[in-house]
């Protein structure tokens, strides 16, 4: 579908690390996510079915959604390595947030959302989240990593 690929190549939007409590804790880089309701506040994250984090996310009562600072440290770890063979959380500072969800200390902004629903559409499953805890600096204070910034990272999970 070449024309659609040309269209989507023009897009640039934030990327996120989504974390699930486990055990063991799991997390992955997510490019498909966004706010989907203002009132009530709702956000959806789409997790690849091929991703190690997929089963942990589906089993979780809540997930963490982290915006990333510039630089590829967290993005390369959570997007370029698979939890099948790497303990990603051993390499970063993190703590237990609400619902036991792992919160990445380096993330400039994050929220934990309770999982309300999921939708199986294609090669990803969407999880609808209701925010229960949010940490964010003032608007514009912390530039965040975008999709174009991580274009060179090869996915750590199988295709």
What number is the mean pLDDT? 89
Question: Which CATH class is shown?
Answer: Mainly Beta
Strand % is 35-45%
What's the number of structural domains? 1
Principal-axes shape call = globular
Question: What is the helix fraction of residues, given as a range?
Answer: 10-25%
Helix and strand content put the structural class at mainly beta
* DSSP E strands, number: 9
Largest sheet: 7 strands, antiparallel
Distance between the termini: 18 Å
* CATH homologous superfamily descriptor: Electron Transport, Fmn-binding Protein, Chain A
* Major β-sheet strand ordering: 2-1-5-8-9-4-3
Q: What's the helix count?
A: 3
CATH architect. name: Roll
Q: Give the uncertain stretches in residue-range form.
A: none
Rg computed from alpha carbons, rounded to a whole number of angstroms? 15 Å
Organism: Kitasatospora putterlickiae
Pfam family, one: Flavin_Reduct
Keywords: Oxidoreductase
Protein name: Flavin reductase family protein
Structural summary, described in words:
With 159 residues, the protein is mostly beta strands. The protein has one domain: Electron Transport, Fmn-binding Protein, Chain A (Pnp Oxidase, Chain A). Helices cover 14% and strands 37% of the residues. The protein has three helices and nine strands. The strands form two sheets. The protein has a seven-stranded antiparallel sheet with strand order 2-1-5-8-9-4-3, sandwiched between helices. Strands 6-7 form a two-stranded antiparallel ribbon. The longest helix has 8 residues. The protein is globular. The mean pLDDT is 89. InterPro entries: Flavin_Rdtase-like_dom, NADH-dep_flavin_reductase, Split_barrel_FMN-bd.
